[in-house]
What we know:
Layout (H helix, E strand, L loop, with lengths): L3 E6 L6 H13 L2 E7 L10 H11 L6 E6 L3 H7 L4 E6 L2 H17 L4 E6 L9 H9 L10 H12 L1
Parallel strand pairs: 1-2, 1-4, 2-3, 4-5
Amino acid sequence: MSKLAVVPGSFDPITNGHLDIITRAAKVFDQVNVVIMNNSAKNSLFTVEERMTLIEKATANLPNVQVASSNGLMINYAESVGAVAVVRGLRAVTDFEYEMQITSMNRVLDEDIETFFIMTKNQYSFLSSSIVKEVAKYGGNISELVPKEVESALKKKFQQ
């Protein structure tokens, strides 16, 4: 039986921290679906389609990773694809407190889908999409923080 995990997020844009978590999840699970949770309340820099393309390029070397998007509850998406697990990355204690609340609610909605936390590598413990966008906006060097495709896409966005 194939074990499918979901790695949800906004990924606006995907960073090397996200990619680290996805890569490590792909070593543990037979299939990993990276799902862009489309939150209409958030003002995203990249469209869902642009984010999907960037993630597909960044994970092209991972044959068991697929990219999707969803507008609803993440747990409903996970159920619809037959996921056995949700994988979340943790950077700090503050992440854990937030993720514990989400995990508890997801367990109420579907107790059969487990949540697995992967601690980020130390080099990415400060990294977020928001900070990457801020640095890129002002022309800072983000080459160590994001895949090359994302670096190029950010430069184009901020030149407009």
